[in-house]
Write a structure and sequence with these properties.
Elements lengths: L3 E6 L3 H12 L4 E4 L14 E2 L1 H9 L3 H7 L1 E3 L1 E4 L2 E4 L10 E3 L2 H14 L3 E3 L4 E6 L4 E5 L4 E9 L6 H6 L5 E2 L4 E9 L7 E6 L2 E9 L2 E8 L12 H12 L5 E10 L3 E3 L4 E2 L2 E3 L5 E2 L7 H20 L9 H24 L4 H14 L2 H12 L22 E2 L2 E2 L9 E5 L5 H6 L6 E5 L8 E6 L5 E6 L6 H12 L5
Parallel strand pairs: 1-2, 1-11, 2-8, 11-20, 24-25
Antiparallel strand pairs: 3-7, 4-7, 5-6, 9-10, 10-11, 12-18, 13-16, 13-17, 14-15, 15-16, 18-21, 19-20, 22-23, 24-26, 26-27
Helix pairs in contact: 1-4, 1-7, 7-8
Keywords: FAD, Flavoprotein
Cofactor: FAD
GO molecular function: FAD binding; oxidoreductase activity, acting on paired donors, with incorporation or reduction of molecular oxygen, NAD(P)H as one donor, and incorporation of one atom of oxygen
């Protein structure tokens, strides 16, 4: 007997979102967190992008996050503004909300779902067999589980112990961050400039306090170099010519632009998600969002396998779908870092790109990449909707995303197709057949929506639905049906 079905190492946004997804599916989950207390001051990330907002909406969670955040109707690519008008979504904005608050809300959700969380519980080792994983903790205790998921950050112990490679590119610059109070703040809530000696930003994050960031391209800091308010002050004076009267730091940190990615996201019964699987410079605020979306891709698949509904091979699709996504994030953050450099050639390139962003197609292409709204997972078939996120259509019985609150697959019948009843009986309890009519009509007769909101089968109006292809899609994503 195992002690739990799934152990998650790490109670950051990725680990907690995965715990929520598994708990929603009825999986027994134990989260092990190295830190003894929740993070309340340290907040590396500061916002949620459109696709993450949509994901939270699909689970009925979004309102609580909206209450705690502030919308901003643009994102950026290397500091070049990308307006979000024209993006196909109900939420054409980024939500400014600190990572600590995201973690608090997700932890509350996980607790309501019965997820257990142990703090001051550091993973130091594990062994796996064909049936389970035995996790060793620093206090000498052990936990047995069906699966172990490392959501334990860029220096992941789980990744290292699994022997999973982490290739990539080393740091070429130094960035510093300080959450401070300012005696003489800039006039705008978000203020950023490139100067002769680097780049700096000042972001208003709450009444009376600000996040100050600097990028220096002539120096790569050693891991052991001290990080103090005076260090940040000197960098600001060098780059900006002023420190804006900074004082009373809440949190100080330093990082570089190293970009690395796990060469595989799975080793038997051990998987990786979030920063344990990919690290990069935090350009465009993509890190937390990519990790949360990793969790939503993995959660329903791991639940299906743990319940015995789907074969173990379903877990291989997690790497196949999410590894290319993070590889693209690493690629675009390298490009953004390069565009922040302060030589004349880079300045000329920025001017050209800024001009091109004035073309809607270019702006929307970059905005879709930063916000992950353009993602399309590889699927068999030629319909352009396959693999994409399902549009949140208004229906005569609510909205499409309302149907995904329980993280079930949904076969949405928009064309009154009685033949679908006979197909789904073999997957009772794993797929919800919902008949509805879209407001304003639709070109779709029926669509199979995976629990993560991505489309796995389409029947277009005026075309005979291929029920054999539907059965194949149900088998691929939900496991074999029963007779």
């Amino acid at each position: 007997m195992t002690d739990t079905q799934v152990v998650i190492a790490g109670a950051g946004p990725t680990g907690l979102m995965l715990a929520c997804e598994l708990g929603l599916a009825g999986i027994d989950v134990l989260v092990l967190e190295r830190l003894p207390e929740p993070r309340t001051v340290e907040s590396r990330a500061g916002g949620l992008h459109i696709r993450t907002l949509e994901t939270l909406d699909q689970r009925g969670l979004l309102d609580r996050f909206l209450e705690r955040g502030r919308p901003r109707h643009d994102v950026h690519f290397s500091g070049l503004t990308l307006g979000l008008s024209g993006v196909a979504t109900r939420y054409p904005y980024a939500l400014l909300i600190l990572q600590a608050e995201v973690e608090r809300l997700l932890e509350e959700r996980a607790a309501r779902l019965g997820v257990r969380l142990r703090r001051d519980a550091e993973v130091t080792g594990f062994t796996q067999s064909g049936t389970d994983v035995t996790v060793e903790l620093a206090d000498g205790s052990r936990v047995r589980a069906g699966y172990l998921v490392g959501c334990d950050g860029g220096r992941s112990t789980v990744r290292r112990l699994a022997g999973i490679g982490f290739p990539g590119t080393p740091a070429t610059m130094t960035a510093m961050l300080g959450d401070v109070e300012l005696a003489e703040p800039p006039a705008h809530d978000i203020f950023q400039e490139r100067r002769e000696h680097g780049r700096f930003s000042v972001l208003s994050y709450g009444p009376g306090w600000y996040r100050v960031l600097t990028n220096e391209f002539g120096h790569v800091a050693g891991r052991d170099e001290p990080m103090t308010l005076e260090t940040l002050r000197k960098a600001m004076l060098t780059i900006a010519g002023t420190d804006f009267g900074m004082h009373s730091p809440r949190w100080l940190s330093r990082h570089g632009d190293a970009a690395r990615q796990a060469d595989r996201y799975r080793d038997g019964r051990v998987l990786l998600a979030g920063d344990a699987a990919h690290v990069h410079f935090p350009a465009g605020g993509q890190g937390l969002n990519t990790g949360v979306q990793d969790a939503v891709n993995l959660g329903w698949k791991l639940a299906a396998v743990a319940h015995g509904h789907a074969p173990d091979s379903l877990l291989d699709t997690y790497h196949a779908e999410r590894h290319p996504v993070a590889a693209r994030v690493l690629h675009n953050t390298r490009a953004q870092t390069a565009l922040w450099r302060v030589d004349e050639h880079t300045s000329a390139l920025r001017e050209v790109l800024d001009d091109l962003i004035g073309i809607d197609e270019v702006r929307l292409r970059l905005a879709g990449m930063i916000t992950a709204t353009d993602l399309r997972y590889p699927m068999d078939g030629t319909d352009d909707l396959l693999g994409r996120r399902m549009p949140d259509l208004d229906l005569d019985r609510g909205r499409v995303y309302d149907l995904l609150h329980h993280a079930h697959a949904v076969l949405l019948d928009l064309g009154d197709l009685p033949a679908l009843d006979g197909v789904v009986t073999g997957w009772a309890g794993r797929v919800d057949l919902v008949r509805a009519h879209p407001a304003g009509g639709s070109e779709l007769d029926a669509v199979l929506i995976r629990p993560d909101g991505h489309v796995a089968w389409v029947a277009r109006s005026g075309q005979r639905p291929d029920l054999d292809v539907l059965r194949a899609a149900l088998t691929t994503w939900l496991g074999p049906g029963t007779r």
